[in-house]
Amino acid sequence: MSRQSSGFSSGLALVGLVGVLVSALGAAAWWTADSLVQGRAVSEGRIVADMAETVGRWASQYGGVHARTQGAGAALPGSFLTRNVYAGGDGDAALLNGAKAEQRQGEREAMARIETYYWKNPALIQREVADVLMATNSQAQYRMTARTVLNRNNAPNPFEVEALDALQKAFNEHGAEAFSKSGPLGGSHMGLKASPNEYWKVQGGQLLYARAVIAQKSCLRCHDTPESAPDFLRTNQQFNGGGGFGYKVGQPIGVISVKLPVQTGLQAASQSVPTAAWVALGVAGLASIGVVVLAFKRRRDAVEQALSAAGPESRLA
């Protein structure tokens, strides 16, 4: 009986070891899938932040852009910082100045030819692109925010405050030179390398990603001191958010905050792995079970044959 018990125990041990191996492989595959999915999400977050920075650089090379409208009754083109109105020609200017005020029909026609140019700075253009993404329910969205803001609607949320604190700490530790480089220079989140100028977390099925915005000389036109800011910023209630001044060139002053959905490894696999692959995995699983059963059966048969050959006396030992 002792040999039978020994054989049975060996069989159970074999089953247990195979079970541990399969479980370990499954756990490794699960964690690897989650890591790959999250890594892809971080890469997408970086691409969105790159797009926002590119929009800002494009606008900066022109000192901002002007939106043009025609006619005195034209709708305002969203937010703007300055407005300049021009008559269509010298004749229209003289007419509108009253030189020929008796010509009412001509005055109406001149008013229809008036051109108005609304100046939008790079940060405002970046924000309007973000507003378009949000209005179209794009899965990938971004916004610009800072610790203190001109527009209250741009105030940071709890994650963005957390990111601002972390990025300021990283700037103090690594310095401006590290912030100007790209690549995995330091820090680690979710097991993925991060540059000092970025911070992220996964929360509620979403990737929350932030990249530091470094103040450039062009930023000081609006964000140096309240006294030196354009009149429109100081007099328009929309930009009276209680902050947004005191920027220093080369210092982190805000973040590009990106939000996009993140799937679990299982969700990604269910959508991207073809049915044939799942069938193959199922067949492989059944084959593994068959191997375990066959090994257990052969072990049992071998023990029984050994006991049979040894005789009755061995069975009673």
Structural account:
This protein starts with a helix and ends with a helix. The protein is elongated, with a radius of gyration of 34 Å. The chain is 54% helix and 16% strand. Strand 5 and strand 6 form a beta hairpin. With 317 residues, the protein is α+β, with helices and mostly antiparallel strands. The strands form 3 sheets. It has a 4-stranded antiparallel sheet with strand order 4-9-8-7, with helices on both faces. Strands 1-3-2 form a 3-stranded antiparallel sheet. Strands 5-6 form a two-stranded antiparallel sheet. It contains 10 helices and 9 strands.
Strand content: 15-25%
Instruction: Return the structural class.
Output: alpha+beta
Share of helical residues: 40-55%
Assembly state of the chains shown: single chain
Q: Summarize the helix and strand pattern as letters.
A: HEEHHEHEHEEEEHHEHHH
Globular, elongated, flat, extended or rod-shaped: what is the shape?
elongated
Gyration radius over CA = 34 Å
User: Overall mean pLDDT score?
Assistant: 76
Low-confidence stretches at least 5 residues in length (pLDDT < 50)?
183-191
Number of helices, counting only DSSP H or I runs of 4 residues or more: 10
Distance between the termini: 7 Å
The strands making up the biggest β-sheet line up spatially as 4-9-8-7
Report the biggest beta sheet as strand number plus sense, adding barrel if it closes: 4 strands, antiparallel
Structure summary, number of beta strands: 9
